């Protein structure tokens, strides 16, 4: 069994702003090189349980990335995640927004379900460690600009 991936970092804003930036304003911070098309017109996370996460490419085609499984603003969003892959081999991502101070929030990310990926699980987990690490600066910049 492949170990759960856990990542935590702090941002200089209130939890509700961090949550809204992660979910409602995902297109403002998600980098194009982490998409299927490489140059999406937009990225959407539908704010509700059962909501889709997808990109809409420049010519209108849509690429599904996942589905929201838990929606508890402003503290928790979780989803089945399969960006660029088969929905049957999705991992589970849980993102928590924990208020530490008036304008400091800790973001805790937990990604699990690697066993669904079969023999490639360890390598894909290793690549996701790097991927999350490269996303954090984009999110931090977007969340702190609008705080």
CATH topology: Alpha-D-Glucose-1,6-Bisphosphate, Chain A, domain 4
Side-by-side strand order of the widest sheet: 1-7-6-5-4-3-2
Order of helices and strands: EHHEEEEEEH
Oligomer: single chain
Question: What number is the mean pLDDT?
Answer: 95
Query: What are the low-pLDDT stretches, counting only 5+ consecutive residues below 50?
Result: none
Classify the helix fraction into a percent range.
Answer: 25-40%
What's the CATH C level? Alpha Beta
Distance between the termini: 40 Å
According to DSSP, the number of beta strands is 7
Describe the global form: globular
Number of domains: 1
User: In terms of structural class, how would the helical and strand content be classed?
Assistant: alpha+beta
Supply the CATH architecture: 2-Layer Sandwich
> Which radius of gyration do the C-alpha atoms yield?
15 Å
Q: Give a short account of the largest sheet.
A: 7 strands, antiparallel
Instruction: Give the amount of beta strand, in percent.
Output: 35-45%
Fourth-tier CATH superfamily name: START domain
